[in-house]
Write a structure and sequence with these properties.
The protein has no helices and three strands. It is an all-beta fold. The protein folds into two domains: 34 residues, no CATH class; 36 residues, no CATH class. It binds zinc ion.
């Protein structure tokens, strides 16, 4: 069966997507993103994480250096 969030192919019995971790159950899409964004981490091949600026219930805001635009 195909993941509703990222379209990756999964086992029919899968309860969560092997690619993005989204729930495969019917209903609202829940995307669980687990990314290590500790200082020095290169994100998206472009942004070097400098540190965490703040966090809310569903969001985390990081300060980062854009290597492309410097
Ligand atoms: Zn997925």
């Amino acid at each position: 069966m195909r993941c509703p969030a990222c379209q990756a192919e999964n086992e029919d019995s899968a309860s969560a997507c092997v690619s993005c971790g989204s729930s495969m159950a019917a209903g609202p899409t829940q995307v669980v993103v687990t990314v290590d964004l500790s200082p020095g981490t290169l994100f998206h091949g472009r942004y070097v994480i400098r540190g965490l600026l703040g966090r809310g219930v569903m969001v985390m805001v990081y300060k980062a250096h854009d290597r492309t635009l410097d």
